[in-house]
Hints:
mainly alpha
Amino acid sequence: MGQGDERDCVGTGTLGGAGDSTLSRIGCRAAADLHDAMFQALGQNPSYVLRRAETEYPLADLCRGRSDPLQTYNDAIAEQERTIAAVKTVKSEGLESKREVCLSKLEQAHGVRS
């Protein structure tokens, strides 16, 4: 879920592309909270999150950023920059394509041209 997806969830009863995953069986607020927790974890342990993202949560959605922005613009930008830097450190074999997809989405959300 990226920005606006929670509105889609409320308006249509769907979870913005989560389909029939576990997330489609829980409430929108819980899904947004889980999304934000996974985004935060991406900045702290990107290999772990990238390895597991597609099984329960679409990688492209996760890497767009938080569902609920942080309190200040500066905090949000700093978190986005830390997350981009963390994902760039991933060198694990088999995660290259997920790393590139995620970096592309992170940089788009941050306004960086690839």
